[in-house]
């Protein structure tokens, strides 16, 4: 079926369409008609503009929303540093730990669950490149949480857009613009600056995050493919307006700013947006709806055919970040080595596994909740076991990846690994090369007389 069968049923309503201009009101008549900032908005609400791009960005790139809320977002006390000696998710200028740029192929065992922390304190930077203060680059994080955020807390990142890939558990995300339920085999994107709170209705959660410091995610151009396939526009879902009314209790607003944590107090709920309209909002997508493309003659196409979302650099065709998946699919190519070929890439490739077994790594070392990193020009490809099987396989049509979903964060940047990712988490597999490639045997046969 062209959608995922989730164990946890959906409970919210959504607006459909990627980068569509939406409007939503939780109270009929709350949206002004014909203008954005009337002298007196309906019901005594405050009008507030949320800009995801510069005012003067080209119209096709401009992202903004107008919010109509009970009190403006600016109504809070000054921010103060929180946990400055321990909380740091900045890939550069790290005073408390080092970033390692190394050419070794890396693979991690499944990352541990942590039932003692909430969403904010579960975030660990594994790798990254660039600088959020310059809006350049990206960060790759692991989350593993076991507690709801406090009922009177909200969090936002000023550093970039969060692309969240759950691997275990369910995220119930209350955002300023409405609610999202995000389950394994779904992803969600929470753009820079949007405030939200995460609760865990099914217990502990774990997964992966790509934080994009530079630009915003877009759908890839389809070129000769035509107007449909891959991730289709209609399958992305944005929340509908939902608000709370509380102006008498104390709330804490947490901000991730230049990788550090800050907190401010305010005497009203952050979730008081009664209506909104625009094209800057959180959204989610069911990976089961991805329409795969592949060869129906010979050879294995580049993995770019599996790109769900992309964020381009200033050089077209070269991505700051691509989000690529490897879903269940049919392989029918004739006279072809069907798994991904051995290669070296000018792009860095960070892979994770949501569930099942990745068809290019059948040796058992690449596991759900684990990860791998093949940095710029670091050679990699199928492990010895996979190569042997694929070289001798009967090339009948076969479906691979049943019950599996692997993904890749790909970037033009040379990605550095943090102290936490390389040492503290204690998940790096020392035998990755030995298990994957040192067992490959030479098969070269020199022709007689040559």
TrEMBL record:
Fe cation binds at residues 343, 349, 380. The active site is at residue 300. The keyword Iron applies. InterPro entries: HgmA_C (IPR046451), HgmA_N (IPR046452), Homogentis_dOase (IPR005708), RmlC-like_jellyroll (IPR014710), RmlC_Cupin_sf (IPR011051). Keywords: Dioxygenase, Iron, Metal-binding, Oxidoreductase, Phenylalanine catabolism, Tyrosine catabolism. GO terms for biological process: L-phenylalanine catabolic process; L-tyrosine catabolic process. Its cofactor is Fe cation. GO terms for cellular component: cytoplasm. The keyword Metal-binding applies. Its EC number is 1.13.11.5. Pathway: Amino-acid degradation; L-phenylalanine degradation; acetoacetate and fumarate from L-phenylalanine: step 4/6. Belongs to the homogentisate dioxygenase family. This is homogentisate 1,2-dioxygenase. GO terms for molecular function: homogentisate 1,2-dioxygenase activity; metal ion binding. Homogentisate binds at residues 358, 380. Residues 13-287 form the Homogentisate 1,2-dioxygenase N-terminal domain. Gene3D superfamilies: Jelly Rolls. Residues 289-444 form the Homogentisate 1,2-dioxygenase C-terminal domain.
């Amino acid at each position: 079926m062209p959608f995922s069968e989730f164990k946890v049923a959906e409970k919210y309503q959504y607006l459909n369409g990627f980068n569509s201009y939406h409007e939503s009101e939780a109270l009929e008549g709350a949206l002004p008609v014909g203008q954005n900032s009337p002298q007196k908005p309906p019901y005594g609400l405050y009008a507030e503009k949320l800009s995801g791009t510069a005012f003067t960005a080209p119209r096709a790139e401009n992202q903004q929303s107008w919010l109509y809320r009970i009190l403006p977002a600016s109504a809070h006390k000054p921010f103060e540093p929180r946990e400055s000696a321990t909380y740091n998710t900045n890939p550069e200028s790290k005073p408390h730990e080092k970033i390692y740029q190394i050419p070794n192929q890396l693979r991690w065992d499944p990352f541990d669950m942590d039932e003692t922390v909430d969403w904010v304190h579960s975030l660990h930077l594994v790798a990254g490149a660039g600088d959020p203060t310059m809006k350049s680059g990206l960060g790759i994080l692991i989350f593993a949480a076991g507690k709801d955020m406090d009922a009177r807390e909200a969090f936002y990142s000023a550093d970039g857009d969060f692309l969240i890939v759950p691997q275990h558990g369910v995220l119930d995300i209350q955002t300023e613009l409405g609610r999202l339920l995000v389950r394994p085999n779904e992803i969600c994107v929470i753009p820079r600056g949007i405030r939200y709170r995460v609760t865990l209705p099914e217990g502990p959660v774990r997964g992966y995050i790509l934080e994009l410091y530079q630009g915003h995610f877009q759908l890839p151009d389809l070129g000769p493919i035509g107007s449909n396939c891959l991730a289709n526009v209609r399958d992305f879902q944005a929340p509908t307006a939902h608000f709370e009314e509380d102006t008498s209790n104390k709330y804490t607003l947490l901000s991730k700013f230049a990788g550090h944590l800050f907190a401010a107090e305010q005497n009203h709920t952050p979730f008081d947006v009664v209506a909104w309209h625009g094209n800057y909002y959180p959204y989610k997508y069911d990976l089961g709806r991805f329409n795969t493309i592949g060869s129906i003659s010979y050879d294995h196409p580049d993995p770019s055919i599996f790109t769900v979302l992309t964020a381009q650099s200033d050089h077209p065709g070269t991505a700051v970040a691509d989000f690529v998946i490897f879903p269940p699919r049919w392989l029918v190519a004739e006279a072809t080595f069907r798994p991904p070929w051995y290669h070296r890439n000018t792009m860095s490739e960070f892979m994770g596994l949501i569930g099942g077994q990745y068809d290019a790594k059948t040796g058992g070392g690449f596991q759900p909740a684990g990860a791998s990193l093949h940095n710029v020009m670091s050679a990699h490809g199928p492990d010895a076991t996979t190569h042997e099987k694929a070289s001798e396989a009967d090339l009948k049509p076969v479906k691979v990846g049943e019950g599996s979903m692997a993904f890749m964060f790909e970037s033009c940047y040379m990605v550095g690994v943090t102290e936490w990712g390389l040492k503290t988490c204690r998940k790096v597999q020392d035998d990755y090369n030995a298990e994957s490639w040192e067992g490959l045997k030479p098969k070269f046969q020199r022709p007689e007389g040559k």
